[in-house]
Amino acid sequence: MRECISRYGPLVWSIARRFAPDASDEATKEIFVELWKHAGRFDPRAGSEPVFIAMIARRCMLDRLRSIVPRPKLKPAPDSLASSEQHTASERCVEAATAAGVLATLDPRQRRILSLAVGQGMTHEEIAGATATQLGTVKSLVRRALIAVRKRLSQHEGVP
Prior knowledge:
The protein is an all-alpha fold. It has 8 helices and no strands.
C-alpha cells in the first residue's frame, strides 16, 4: 500500500482536489480505501495501473458528490408523459417550452438516450445496459442528439 501511495499519490490527490477542493485530503483517503477494496479487479489487459486508479478515483469522487448534493426526483422521459403533463411542464417557462419543442423534433431513440444521459445522469455504459444497446451506438446517439439540439436551438434563437 505504501508503494501505491508513493507512486500514485499525486495522481489521486489531483483528482480529489479537482472534485473536492476544500476536502482533498479526506477525499484522497477515501479514494485509497476504495482502491484497496477493488485492487483485485485490476486487469492489466484492460488498461494500465494509472488508468485503473484514475477510474476508481473519479468514480469515488462522483459518488461522493452525489451523496453530498441531493439529486432531484426525476420525472419519466418526456415521451412517456401524457400530453397534458408535457404541456403543463412546458408552460412553466419559455426555456422549458423551447427545450421541449427541440427535444420533440429528435428521433425517439435519440430522445430516449439523451433523456437518460442528461436527465437522469446515467453514464454511457449504464445506458447501454438499461437499453440493451451497444456502447458505441449509445455514444453515437448521444453525440448526434446533442449536435441536433445545439443546431435547432441556434436556429430557434436566430444564431447562425
